[in-house]
Design brief:
single chain; mainly alpha; 10 helices; globular; 279 residues; 72% helix
């Protein structure tokens, strides 16, 4: 265990350095005009994410932390759009809408009691883990990110046939992830898990650097897998590979389960803190 902790610290330092060496893409210097329809779509998405998160937050659901992160991401994307950050805002909104639709379809089906067989395997794995009521907040976050990035994202790249021409706007989402991380992690700490507060095990800069770099690396891989899907014409074998990729990536984040005492403490912390904060 000690050697694993040492390895994690070393990995964190390496990743922190890597983050510093990965410069932001920055805003487009010549953005296309954005249609009123795209602005309306982003507004709809923000309201949708807000309503879903509030429903989950009211119940202190284990799925609430990821829903909150998604709300921050969607709100941030809306601001990026208004500021002309993307070269092709209309195309980016279509991408975001389709991408968010995969999360919405999965979680809404799960909450409505759909059969597990009706949920895509990576999301089913994330939801079933949360359903043990013994998951850690960090596990719920990473399993959600895993399903959405390692599986869903590659599929959207393929479905929209995004290639090198769209790569810069795709990578501008990395800038957004970096921008919202600090605020999102702080809110997670205030509401759901004190270890995400500044100075906590999950709230220190090194851990946040690890989180950011893992997500950015997954996005890099999703782009390549999306290109592979385009090249193979969406072969069933390639889709099956995505499931395997997501399942493999999920494995380190499924254990250990919280003890019953830890699970009770997680629920109590949420019940005592979440309603004091309004978004």
């Amino acid at each position: 265990m000690k050697s694993f902790a040492t390895l994690l610290i070393f990995f964190g330092l390496v990743v922190a350095l890597a983050c510093c060496l990965r410069p932001p893409v920055g805003p487009s210097t010549d953005p296309l005009p954005v249609s009123s329809t795209s602005y309306a779509t982003m507004h709809r998405l923000v309201v949708q994410m807000q309503n879903r998160w509030r429903r989950l937050d009211a119940d202190c659901s284990p799925l609430a932390p990821f829903a909150l992160i998604y709300l921050f991401m969607t709100s941030g994307a809306s601001e990026y759009l208004q500021n002309g950050y993307f070269a092709d805002g209309d195309a980016m909104v279509e991408f975001i809408d389709r991408f968010a639709g995969r999360y919405s379809a999965a979680i809404d089906a799960w909450l409505d009691g759909a059969s597990p067989s009706q949920i895509t395997p990576p999301w089913r794995e994330a939801f079933q883990h949360a359903d043990t009521n013994r998951s850690a907040v960090s596990q719920d976050l990473f399993l959600g990110f895993n399903a959405h990035i390692n599986y869903d994202l590659a599929i959207i790249v393929y479905q929209m046939n995004w290639k090198q021409e769209q790569k810069k706007d795709y990578d501008r989402v990395n800038d957004l992830l970096t921008d919202v991380t600090d605020t999102a992690v702080l809110e997670i700490g205030n509401r759901y898990d004190p270890s995400f507060k500044p100075g906590g095990a999950n709230g220190n800069p090194t851990q946040q650097a690890v989180l950011a770099e893992v997500l950015l690396s997954w996005r890099d891989a999703a782009w390549l897998n999306g290109q592979l899907l385009i090249t193979t014409g969406g072969s069933s074998l390639t889709f099956a590979t995505l499931v395997t990729v997501a399942s493999t990536a999920a494995a380190p984040y499924k254990a250990p389960l919280n003890t019953q005492e830890q699970a009770s403490a997680r629920l109590q912390y949420c019940e005592e803190n979440h309603s004091q904060l309004n978004l």
